[in-house]
Amino acid sequence: MSRPPRPSAAVVLTRNRLANRQVFWVRRSSRVAFMPGHYSFPGGGVEPADHEAARYFHGPEELRPSLAAAVRETFEETGVLLGAARLDDLPATRKALLAKEIPFIEALERHQAQPAGVVFHEAARWVTPPFSPMRFSARFFVADCPEDQHPEVWEGELAMGEWIAPAAAVDLWRRGLALVPPPALHILRSLEREWDHAIELLRNPGFLNADSIPTKMEVTPGIHVVPLRTPTLPPATHTNLYIAGHGELVLIEPASGEAAELAVLDTCLDTLRREGKGPIREILITHHHGDHVGGLEAMRQKYGVPVRGHALNRDKLGAGALDGFIASGELIVIPGDPPLRLRALHTPGHAQGHLIFWEEDARAIIAGDMMAGVGTILIDPPEGHMGTYLQSLELMLDLHPHVILPAHGPAIGDARDAIRFYIQHRLKREEKIFSAVAAGAGTVEEIVPIAYDDTPPAAWPLAERSTLAHLEHLAGLGRVVENQGRYLTADRVR
Ligand SMILES: [Zn+2]
Fold first, then answer.
1. How far is the CA of 369 from the centre of ligand 1 (A)?
2. Residues 6+ positions from 467 with CB-CB distance below 8 Å
3. Residues within 5 A (CB) of ion ligand 1
4. The CATH number of the domain covering residues in 218-392+401-412
5. How does pLDDT run across 209-260, given as a tens digit for each residue?
6. How far away, in angstroms, is 233 Cα from ligand 1 center?
7. Which element (helix H / strand E) includes 46?
8. Considering the entire predicted model, what is its pTM?
9. Is 1.10.10.10 the CATH classification of the domain at 429-492?
10. Which CATH superfamily is domain 6-203 in?
């Protein structure tokens, strides 16, 4: 079971000028473990020092350490020290605090800060759902940024920060240009409203359960993600089921039929139903692997709807597993206001009958196992084929996508860069394998320790499968030949 969520806190800095409200949002670095590349607000975990500093804050006793953490994190991440009276040398104090040379209390005292005088509007507490390996119990406070202070992000855990109108931020999310986790998205949508209404919505989002866990997670407009626990390839532990539609709904990846996982799905469906969405029209699969279809039969029975996928899955799933087939290029229109359109595209390589689903409005690809937000994609011959996998990645690149919605792990932003990285990473590995062959390694067992010297030996059994896929690809290109069970570079064979 996952560990209890860690208390954390964040500040939504606002600027309300001439009826033109702005918020300061930050983008997390693409290298951090939690929500890489996602937009949110300055914040972080509550630390012992925050309990010490709590006496500088007003409000209910149990809230004060969170307020202290929110103010400290905002100072560390943006340089804005809420309540500060003396502003000279703030950057020096920020640097010293970041280097842990001074405690937070000293930072407050140096600048004669009286955070008790700052007005904080308390928003709801949000708890990360149990699927996540890192979980937070996060408090958000909305506070006006002092006119004489200007937030500035120093690159590190955060890649950037900027002032933006809430409506403009939501619009970037709508177009797939910004990944925004559920709490931040709700806060931005609330702050689009007139002030009293906004404050009410911030306090009562309306879709948090009794444990403050969101019961729906909209990743791009009209597409909700429900991670279901599956026996998948570590380090992944879950497969993402996606619910698509603004009205009627389509389920993609019926990954688990376990009662506990079906209950997680039902909680989300109930929330969507209360918003007037439904019924479920059909279930789609990306491909036949067990961690993607484990709940196919259970969900077909439960919801009484047909299941469709590419015809090449027919033999692997057995007769009758699919009620209909999807051809590459088929446009699936899901009725609603507005209708949601998914274009199915055949992308073999990881699996012969693999489909992706392309949603053009947010330029989002529901990518199945073509790419992963956690772990790597296995190309395992003879089902897996490196040459066609690389071609399928090129096909995805040509769509000019903004967002990848993978079957495992969080959404991936800057999609074209991510796809290019995947292709380059494979080709780089292939060159290492070619070099190993050129140096005399002739079997998969001899090649792997050389070509995967940057990978722990525990991963080598899987690396052997990928190596075989690369060797097949190199053979197809005429660069290596197989001769009596050994691989040679082509120029060595005459
Ligand atoms: Zn798979």
1. 5
2. 433, 444, 447, 448, 451, 452
3. 289, 369
4. 3.60.15.10
5. 999 999 999 999 999 999 999 998 888 899 999 999 999 999 999 999 999 9
6. 9
7. none
8. 0.94
9. yes
10. Nucleoside Triphosphate Pyrophosphohydrolase (3.90.79.10)
